[in-house]
Amino acid sequence: MTQQLLMIEDDTRLAGMVGEYLRQSGYGFSHATTGADGLEALQLSPPDLVILDLMLPDMDGLEVCRRIKGRGGDAARTAVLMLTAKGDPMDRIVGLEIGADDYLPKPFEPRELLARIRAVLRRSGDSSGGGVAASGHKVMRFGSLEIDRDARSVSVSGVLCELTSYQFDLLVALAERAGRVLSRDQIMEAVRGRELEAFDRSIDVHMGRIRSAIEDDAKDPKRILTVRGVGYVFAKQQD
User: Fold this and answer.
1) What pLDDT, on the 0 to 100 scale, is given for residue 130?
2) How many angstroms separate the Cα of 15 from the Cα of each of 8, 41, 95, 157, 237?
Protein backbone atom coordinates (compact mmCIF):
# COMPACT_ATOMS: atom_id res chain seq x y z
CA MET A 1 0.00 0.00 0.00
CA THR A 2 1.28 3.45 -0.91
CA GLN A 3 2.19 5.53 2.11
CA GLN A 4 0.39 8.86 2.28
CA LEU A 5 2.05 12.17 3.13
CA LEU A 6 0.31 15.45 3.95
CA MET A 7 2.27 18.70 3.68
CA ILE A 8 0.90 21.73 5.54
CA GLU A 9 2.78 24.63 3.96
CA ASP A 10 1.62 28.03 2.68
CA ASP A 11 4.43 28.27 0.11
CA THR A 12 2.65 26.64 -2.84
CA ARG A 13 5.75 26.73 -5.05
CA LEU A 14 7.79 24.82 -2.46
CA ALA A 15 4.95 22.38 -1.84
CA GLY A 16 4.62 21.76 -5.58
CA MET A 17 8.30 20.90 -5.97
CA VAL A 18 8.33 18.73 -2.84
CA GLY A 19 5.14 16.96 -3.93
CA GLU A 20 6.52 16.12 -7.36
CA TYR A 21 9.75 14.77 -5.84
CA LEU A 22 7.95 12.64 -3.24
CA ARG A 23 5.45 11.24 -5.75
CA GLN A 24 8.37 10.20 -7.97
CA SER A 25 9.80 8.46 -4.89
CA GLY A 26 6.67 6.35 -4.54
CA TYR A 27 4.58 8.24 -1.96
CA GLY A 28 1.07 9.57 -2.10
CA PHE A 29 1.08 13.33 -1.52
CA SER A 30 -1.52 15.92 -0.59
CA HIS A 31 -1.14 19.58 0.32
CA ALA A 32 -2.90 22.09 2.55
CA THR A 33 -1.98 25.79 2.69
CA THR A 34 -3.35 26.56 6.17
CA GLY A 35 -3.37 24.87 9.55
CA ALA A 36 -7.17 24.64 9.55
CA ASP A 37 -7.27 22.99 6.12
CA GLY A 38 -4.51 20.61 7.15
CA LEU A 39 -6.35 19.52 10.30
CA GLU A 40 -9.53 18.99 8.27
CA ALA A 41 -7.65 16.92 5.69
CA LEU A 42 -6.09 14.87 8.46
CA GLN A 43 -9.51 14.23 9.98
CA LEU A 44 -11.02 13.09 6.67
CA SER A 45 -8.15 10.85 5.60
CA PRO A 46 -5.32 10.40 8.14
CA PRO A 47 -1.91 10.26 6.41
CA ASP A 48 1.07 8.21 7.52
CA LEU A 49 3.11 11.37 8.07
CA VAL A 50 2.56 15.13 8.19
CA ILE A 51 5.23 17.54 6.92
CA LEU A 52 4.42 20.63 8.97
CA ASP A 53 5.71 24.16 8.44
CA LEU A 54 5.76 26.22 11.64
CA MET A 55 5.03 29.54 9.91
CA LEU A 56 1.42 29.32 8.73
CA PRO A 57 -0.97 32.20 7.89
CA ASP A 58 -3.84 31.23 10.20
CA MET A 59 -2.24 29.57 13.22
CA ASP A 60 1.10 28.66 14.74
CA GLY A 61 2.45 25.37 13.40
CA LEU A 62 3.21 24.37 16.98
CA GLU A 63 -0.51 24.64 17.72
CA VAL A 64 -1.27 22.44 14.71
CA CYS A 65 1.20 19.84 16.02
CA ARG A 66 -0.35 20.06 19.48
CA ARG A 67 -3.82 19.43 18.05
CA ILE A 68 -2.62 16.49 15.96
CA LYS A 69 -0.98 14.83 18.94
CA GLY A 70 -3.88 15.67 21.23
CA ARG A 71 -6.56 13.94 19.17
CA GLY A 72 -6.09 10.56 20.82
CA GLY A 73 -6.27 7.12 19.25
CA ASP A 74 -4.70 6.46 15.85
CA ALA A 75 -4.69 10.16 14.93
CA ALA A 76 -2.33 10.96 17.81
CA ARG A 77 0.14 8.42 16.42
CA THR A 78 0.39 10.23 13.07
CA ALA A 79 4.06 11.04 12.58
CA VAL A 80 4.96 14.74 12.33
CA LEU A 81 8.08 16.11 10.67
CA MET A 82 8.48 19.84 11.39
CA LEU A 83 10.00 22.36 9.02
CA THR A 84 11.72 25.01 11.14
CA ALA A 85 13.50 28.28 10.47
CA LYS A 86 17.25 27.75 10.24
CA GLY A 87 19.04 28.65 13.46
CA ASP A 88 15.88 28.78 15.60
CA PRO A 89 16.39 26.04 18.22
CA MET A 90 13.56 27.14 20.50
CA ASP A 91 10.80 26.22 18.03
CA ARG A 92 12.52 22.90 17.46
CA ILE A 93 12.73 22.13 21.17
CA VAL A 94 9.13 23.13 21.84
CA GLY A 95 7.97 21.09 18.86
CA LEU A 96 9.76 17.99 20.11
CA GLU A 97 8.32 18.54 23.57
CA ILE A 98 4.75 18.45 22.24
CA GLY A 99 5.33 15.27 20.26
CA ALA A 100 6.91 16.00 16.87
CA ASP A 101 8.94 13.03 15.62
CA ASP A 102 11.66 14.93 13.79
CA TYR A 103 12.57 18.35 12.41
CA LEU A 104 14.29 19.74 9.35
CA PRO A 105 15.59 23.33 9.07
CA LYS A 106 14.80 25.42 5.99
CA PRO A 107 16.19 25.61 3.39
CA PHE A 108 16.62 21.86 2.87
CA GLU A 109 17.64 19.43 0.16
CA PRO A 110 14.80 17.22 -1.12
CA ARG A 111 17.01 14.16 -0.66
CA GLU A 112 17.46 14.95 3.02
CA LEU A 113 13.72 15.43 3.44
CA LEU A 114 13.14 12.04 1.81
CA ALA A 115 15.72 10.41 4.09
CA ARG A 116 14.07 11.94 7.17
CA ILE A 117 10.61 10.79 6.03
CA ARG A 118 11.84 7.24 5.48
CA ALA A 119 13.56 7.18 8.88
CA VAL A 120 10.47 8.44 10.73
CA LEU A 121 8.17 5.98 8.97
CA ARG A 122 10.60 3.15 9.63
CA ARG A 123 10.66 4.01 13.32
CA SER A 124 6.87 4.10 13.30
CA GLY A 125 6.79 0.56 11.94
CA ASP A 126 5.16 1.67 8.70
CA SER A 127 7.83 0.47 6.29
CA SER A 128 9.69 -2.78 5.66
CA GLY A 129 13.03 -1.47 6.89
CA GLY A 130 14.29 -2.75 10.22
CA GLY A 131 15.08 -0.43 13.08
CA VAL A 132 16.49 -0.73 16.55
CA ALA A 133 13.54 -2.81 17.70
CA ALA A 134 14.21 -5.57 15.19
CA SER A 135 16.98 -7.29 17.13
CA GLY A 136 17.19 -9.17 20.41
CA HIS A 137 14.31 -10.40 22.56
CA LYS A 138 10.79 -9.29 21.69
CA VAL A 139 9.96 -8.07 25.20
CA MET A 140 12.38 -6.50 27.68
CA ARG A 141 11.49 -6.29 31.36
CA PHE A 142 13.17 -4.19 34.01
CA GLY A 143 11.22 -4.50 37.25
CA SER A 144 7.74 -3.10 36.58
CA LEU A 145 8.87 -1.57 33.25
CA GLU A 146 8.04 -3.61 30.14
CA ILE A 147 9.15 -2.75 26.59
CA ASP A 148 7.34 -4.72 23.88
CA ARG A 149 9.21 -4.48 20.58
CA ASP A 150 6.53 -6.06 18.39
CA ALA A 151 3.71 -3.89 19.74
CA ARG A 152 6.08 -0.91 20.05
CA SER A 153 4.58 -0.23 23.44
CA VAL A 154 5.92 0.60 26.88
CA SER A 155 4.14 0.00 30.16
CA VAL A 156 4.86 0.47 33.85
CA SER A 157 2.97 -1.85 36.21
CA GLY A 158 0.64 -2.66 33.32
CA VAL A 159 -0.18 0.97 32.52
CA LEU A 160 0.69 2.05 28.98
CA CYS A 161 3.09 4.97 28.57
CA GLU A 162 2.67 7.57 25.80
CA LEU A 163 5.85 7.93 23.72
CA THR A 164 6.51 9.05 20.15
CA SER A 165 8.07 6.51 17.80
CA TYR A 166 11.44 8.25 18.10
CA GLN A 167 11.25 8.27 21.90
CA PHE A 168 10.38 4.57 21.85
CA ASP A 169 13.50 3.82 19.80
CA LEU A 170 15.64 5.98 22.07
CA LEU A 171 14.38 4.00 25.06
CA VAL A 172 15.07 0.69 23.29
CA ALA A 173 18.58 1.86 22.38
CA LEU A 174 19.27 2.65 26.03
CA ALA A 175 17.65 -0.55 27.35
CA GLU A 176 19.69 -2.71 24.96
CA ARG A 177 22.80 -1.18 26.47
CA ALA A 178 21.67 -1.20 30.11
CA GLY A 179 24.52 -0.39 32.48
CA ARG A 180 26.61 1.35 29.79
CA VAL A 181 27.16 5.08 29.93
CA LEU A 182 26.36 6.55 26.50
CA SER A 183 27.02 10.02 25.17
CA ARG A 184 24.22 11.94 23.48
CA ASP A 185 25.82 11.40 20.09
CA GLN A 186 26.13 7.64 20.70
CA ILE A 187 22.46 7.38 21.64
CA MET A 188 21.22 9.35 18.63
CA GLU A 189 23.56 7.55 16.26
CA ALA A 190 22.24 4.20 17.55
CA VAL A 191 18.75 5.29 16.51
CA ARG A 192 19.36 7.32 13.36
CA GLY A 193 22.46 5.57 12.13
CA ARG A 194 24.33 8.74 11.32
CA GLU A 195 26.34 11.42 13.03
CA LEU A 196 24.45 14.44 14.32
CA GLU A 197 25.46 17.90 15.37
CA ALA A 198 27.63 17.69 18.46
CA PHE A 199 25.63 20.39 20.23
CA ASP A 200 22.14 19.24 19.26
CA ARG A 201 20.26 19.31 22.58
CA SER A 202 17.08 17.72 21.26
CA ILE A 203 18.20 14.48 22.92
CA ASP A 204 17.73 16.13 26.33
CA VAL A 205 14.20 17.14 25.40
CA HIS A 206 13.34 13.59 24.42
CA MET A 207 14.93 12.15 27.55
CA GLY A 208 12.82 14.50 29.65
CA ARG A 209 9.68 13.28 27.88
CA ILE A 210 10.66 9.62 28.32
CA ARG A 211 11.32 10.16 32.00
CA SER A 212 7.96 11.85 32.44
CA ALA A 213 6.35 8.75 30.94
CA ILE A 214 8.24 5.94 32.69
CA GLU A 215 9.60 7.34 35.95
CA ASP A 216 7.66 7.51 39.22
CA ASP A 217 9.27 10.92 39.72
CA ALA A 218 10.84 12.49 36.63
CA LYS A 219 12.78 14.92 38.83
CA ASP A 220 14.36 12.01 40.72
CA PRO A 221 14.81 9.38 37.99
CA LYS A 222 15.71 5.79 38.85
CA ARG A 223 15.58 4.22 35.39
CA ILE A 224 17.39 6.71 33.11
CA LEU A 225 20.23 8.38 34.97
CA THR A 226 22.23 11.42 33.89
CA VAL A 227 26.00 11.13 34.02
CA ARG A 228 27.07 14.75 34.25
CA GLY A 229 29.37 15.82 31.45
CA VAL A 230 29.01 12.51 29.61
CA GLY A 231 25.44 11.46 28.82
CA TYR A 232 22.96 8.88 30.11
CA VAL A 233 22.86 5.35 31.50
CA PHE A 234 19.89 2.99 31.69
CA ALA A 235 19.81 1.23 35.08
CA LYS A 236 20.07 -2.57 34.93
CA GLN A 237 18.38 -3.09 38.29
CA GLN A 238 14.96 -1.47 38.64
CA ASP A 239 11.92 -1.84 40.87
Assistant:
1) 35
2) 8, 16, 21, 45, 49
